[in-house]
């Protein structure tokens, strides 16, 4: 069995694995996609001490750093069940059962869906989630960004440089993004911001041709003709597979204490899959280190 088994290969999981391996204990890491969300990130300017880097480059350095230690890396493997017996057992989708004295869950998060008609039908036919990946497909076109939080406004600023016009639709009466991002957004000539807008439907034939929304102030329905819709309404933690085992809050985030411990003895968690207040690379790494030290502390006491 492993001493520490990490589930997830993003910034949190990679950090947890390195901290464990440096204690000289038997460490494994299971990742569906090593690197995690940073693989979908272009510019990173807030990874302190590095003025600028790009996601795939940072992901490659993470992997190189983990490989520098004696860590058993199981990439392209998905965990589907966790059970506390004498040891903690983690079952993978391929049927394998891994056993470990301590487990650190670092399965991160994914884009949230809007759940309106047209969204699923036109996915990759005009409906997109990753502006860095799909933005260039909309060069010279009219796109909408749903969501006026940091990610939505960042996406709109990004897309304004590629698309002909960007319409931001925010459900609330105000944008929630940081003031500096809003200032930047409002300074752009080809951006329209519509607040109080409830998206009703994404329309199209073989691909997206428009969006219908309800003005929540007046109740009136409006239609905008456009070719692309970027959904930027937040992240959902990848924790469904823990249903009934590890305690989570109403958002599905794993509840951890200051050592990264969950309600199950020997099971720790870190990064975007937890109830941490902010979801950032540097924060995930810090919590990965915390959970790993917490797990080591647990091991020497049990
Ligand atoms: P993730 O990066 O989500 O990694 C989760 C890992 O778990 C992945 O390896 C995944 O494949 C794996 N996994 C999931 N489920 C399972 C399972 N069942 N079994 C096995 N493995 C599983 N942060 C910044 O600090 N600066 C930025 O500029 C920045 N820009 C961003 C831009 C975009 C487009 C996005 C999406 C995020 C950005 N972030 C940024 C946020 C940052 O990427 C995340 O906070 C960070 O990646 C979280 O790390 P994590 O390790 O907790 O989770």
Automatic annotation (TrEMBL):
The keyword Coiled coil applies. It comes from the Bacteria. GO terms for cellular component: cytosol; protein-containing complex. Its EC number is 1.6.99.3. FAD binds at residues 3-18, 262-272. One of its GO terms (biological process) is response to reactive oxygen species. Binds 1 FAD per subunit. Keywords: Coiled coil, Disulfide bond, FAD, Flavoprotein, NAD, NADP, Oxidoreductase, Redox-active center. Disulfide bonds join 130-133. Residues 59-93 form a coiled coil. Its cofactor is FAD. NAD(+) binds at residues 142-156. GO terms for molecular function: flavin adenine dinucleotide binding; NAD binding; NADH-dependent peroxiredoxin activity; oxidoreductase activity, acting on a sulfur group of donors, NAD(P) as acceptor. Residues 2-287 form the FAD/NAD(P)-binding domain. Belongs to the class-II pyridine nucleotide-disulfide oxidoreductase family. Homodimer. This is NADH dehydrogenase. It comes from Anoxybacillus thermarum. The lineage of its organism: Bacteria, Bacillati, Bacillota, Bacilli, Bacillales.
